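Ticket #4471: structure export looks truncated?
Reporter: QA, pipeline team
Priority: medium

Steps to reproduce: submit the single chain below to the structure queue and open the exported record.
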Amino acid sequence: MQRNIVVIGASAGGIEALRTIMAGLPSDFPATVLVVLHLPSYGNSVLPAILGRAGRLPATHPVSGEALRPGRVLVAPADHHLVIEGGRAVLTRGPSENGHRPAIDVLFRSAARAAGPRVVAVVLSGVLDDGTAGLSAVMARGGTSIVQDPKDALYSAMPENALAHVAVDHVLPAERIAPLLVELCAADNPSADPVDPLDPPAFLDIDAEVPGLSGTAIDVAGRPGTPSGFSCPDCGGVLWEIHDFDLVRYRCRVGHAWSAESLLGQQATQLDSALWMALRGLEEKAALARTLADRANERHSPLSAKRFVEQAGEASRAAKLIRSMLEAGVGIPHVEPETTRME
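Actual output as written to the record:
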């Protein structure tokens, strides 16, 4: 079976690796290349122009529903998931995964479901672990996996997480990935022993349908997972714990999905915001109490003034405690380096 779909996921530090890969692909490359790079939800991505200049293949944002054609590079636009459905590239604004839209796992899972052994999935430089669950799905359906050597990646966490949880086929520096892709797509995939497409693990089909805003995918009887006791950082709903092969993941009722590490990072972000909100509230309370104390003194009401001064002191002491927590780094999230500066 010929491999004719290449899906690539990258995050922080991934642009240089993508350029290197594009530069090594020939103009007659016999597969479609689909790329997800983590982007903020606002603004426009110039990644297609960068990748088009770097190599011989034309690179564009796809028109939703366009057919997959060999020798083309399709790049997910900002604030849209890129998925494969029936041999076509489809854009959707479904729920974010690991705090991202576009998300790597979404593309990889849809490719695994649509094309099985015809897929080659590539994980490049980045932080946290988006791409690991999707890579696992590709492997489960008989696809081929490639991970950038962590020592070669500007940010090694994404490759390291993939290697820790998936029995990856190939681990290479970026400069050797393009020649391997050419070799893989020129040959049949004799090792394919995919899960029966008619009987995949339940979460593969459900996860593949959720980005299309399919409410039925979430509400099906016997949906995988159990209530975790954790809440979704995006919507506040209950997260269900899903055991995805040897991975533990979480998904809420409306479809937001999190790996354990990404969930922890987002909780840190929320804690940091909550501490700053609490600090603001306490300092406002202290300021208001001091104002009321001054007015009470002007009215010659010493008891009221004393009470307001005590309240101001309590609020100031609590604010000082929160400031010390912020200075110590409590709640500081892992912030992903900027990926939109693509000069």
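Status: closed, not a bug. The export was complete when the record was re-opened. Leaving a note from the reviewer for reference: Residues 194-200, 335-343 have pLDDT under 50 and may be disordered.
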